[in-house]
Automatic annotation (TrEMBL):
It comes from Serratia odorifera DSM 4582. The keyword Oxidoreductase applies. Residues 1-314 form the Luciferase-like domain. Pfam families: Bac_luciferase (PF00296). One of its GO terms (cellular component) is cytosol. Keywords: Monooxygenase, Oxidoreductase. InterPro entries: Bact_Lucif_Oxidored, Luciferase-like_dom, Luciferase-like_sf. This is Luciferase-like monooxygenase. SUPFAM superfamilies: Bacterial luciferase-like (SSF51679). One of its GO terms (molecular function) is oxidoreductase activity, acting on paired donors, with incorporation or reduction of molecular oxygen. It comes from the Bacteria. PANTHER family: BLR5498 PROTEIN, LUCIFERASE-LIKE MONOOXYGENASE.
Length: 345
């Protein structure tokens, strides 16, 4: 199983310098590259200081110049916010600049907060349908001289300019949860990204089972991969692991508040959650984080990841966004590289 890093600029306090956050993100990426991690993934978000990521291609090009071998992935491009011609060209240019290291992850998007601002009236269903139209169109544009008449986009004969370095194109990944998304991905020759968020082993098993059953039924022309994206923290000891569980619990309370899109937002920041509100939210808890996420000493994390490997996951992406300090993220990542990764080489 290949081991990767999933990272954004993450802002939990308005006092935190965005320039400093970017430099810290780059430091984590450089550590991942030097440590031999397989890939670095970063996503697309708009108007939210929770995850600052307006254009992952910009970040990946910069990261490419500061790294030597690590693969560089979009985790993920939000399909409805991208025109097929523009996405095909921008992804291809990124593939050229990064010397053929691009992995193109695409999703329908998750936050109604973003939908309201970029495409008012957009629903999750409509966003999913746009993704299903976008990906085949992008693949055709990379072949060239392609005219499109669809429900959401129409254009005369066009060729992506430029064409990607990787041929026939960079690997494409689809963020999938329900069986229909898995079916779309497999039918279109796309790898699958899944995240159980804060949920436990039952969801992790369900997601990989859905992928395997879909591949058995459809029988894709080329072998496809499934990647598990999950929060994790490699701790020094149990007290350190418990602290991480508390920090991840706070992160998921903010994640849930952004997802519900009911709380006031000012300057891209949610109205702060009080300790009392976090404690009262029974949907999340530090105990559940400790049990369900890849938190623990190096040996504990190795044992958990071995289970994921045995289930059939071919890549694990350590989601490092957490609300904890840069120093704690860095220490965990270094322990992951030095204490966990050797078991998977």
């Amino acid at each position: 199983m290949k081991l990767s890093l999933f990272v954004h600029m993450e802002r939990t306090l308005p006092e935190e310098s965005q320039q400093k956050l970017y430099e810290e993100m780059l430091q984590l990426c450089e550590i991942a590259d030097r440590g031999g991690m397989h890939a670095i993934w970063t996503g697309e978000h708009h108007g939210m200081n929770f995850t600052i990521a307006p254009n992952p291609f910009i970040n990946l090009v910069d990261i490419a110049h500061r790294t030597s071998r690590v693969r560089l992935g979009t985790g993920t491009i939000i399909a409805p916010f991208n025109h097929p011609i523009r996405l095909a060209g921008e992804a291809a240019m990124t593939d050229i600049i990064t010397d053929g290291r691009l992995e193109l992850g695409i999703a329908r998007g998750a936050y109604s907060y973003e939908y309201e601002r970029l495409m008012p009236g957009l629903t999750a269903w409509d966003a999913g349908q746009r993704m299903r139209e976008l990906i085949p169109a992008v693949k055709q544009l990379w072949q060239g001289d392609y005219a499109h008449q669809g429900e959401y986009w129409s254009f005369p004969s066009t060729t992506s300019s430029p064409l990607p370095k990787q041929q026939p194109h960079p690997p494409i990944w689809v963020a999938a949860r329900d069986p229909n998304s898995h079916e779309f991905a497999v039918k279109n020759g796309c790898n699958v990204q899944v995240t159980p968020l804060h949920q436990g082993e039952e969801e992790i098993v369900r997601l990989v089972t859905c992928f395997k059953e879909t591949c058995q039924r459809i029988k894709p022309e080329q072998p496809l991969k499934i990647m598990l994206l999950q929060h994790g923290y490699v701790a020094e000891d149990e007290a350190d692991a418990q602290q991480a569980a508390v920090e991840f619990n706070r992160f998921y309370n903010y994640f849930g508040a952004w997802f519900k899109n009911e709380r006031p937002v000012s300057q891209g920041m949610l109205q702060p959650l009080s300790d009392e509100e976090i404690a009262a939210n029974s949907y999340y808890s530090p105990q559940a984080m400790r049990q369900n996420l890849a938190i623990g000493t190096a040996n504990e994390v190795i044992a958990r990841l071995k289970k994921y490997q045995d289930l059939g996951y071919e890549e694990f992406a350590l989601w490092i966004d957490s609300g904890m300090s840069f120093e704690r993220k860095k220490a965990s990542l270094e322990r992951f590289i030095n204490g966990v990764m050797p078991e998977f080489h």
